Amino acid sequence: RVARQSCDPVGAVQRIFEEAGGLMRQSHCSGGCFFGNLAQETSDRDETIRQKVAEHLQAWTAELAAFLERWRRAGYFRDGFQPQVAAQAILSLLEGALLFSKASKSPDPVESAKHLAVAYLEATRAMGAGLRRDALETT
Asked: Residue 61: inside a domain, yes or no?
């Protein structure tokens, strides 16, 4: 889903957190992430389910990392930016925020996490360099 985002990385990540926050508000903070909930409930008891959940989370991370990598190649990020590390951190932040929202019955943790994820991406953005739009094209 991230790969289909037509906006820059900051906008795409903002949208991910805003959609999650909207779902938490809609459900009165009782839902959360299906895969996160499943992992918390079953990962110590059922290895097959744990592996399937891990595969899903890895695929989700890989999709976000590929999206960030395209923007890195286009010159959006500073040298040294690691898309895989960033993707895993952003999604871990989101999953933790969903857990905190459920526990506190408040969407505020998702909003706080969004601000932190956005601040991180903005801090790693290259300054003054032009974007190479050809690097953003997907095949």
From this structure: yes
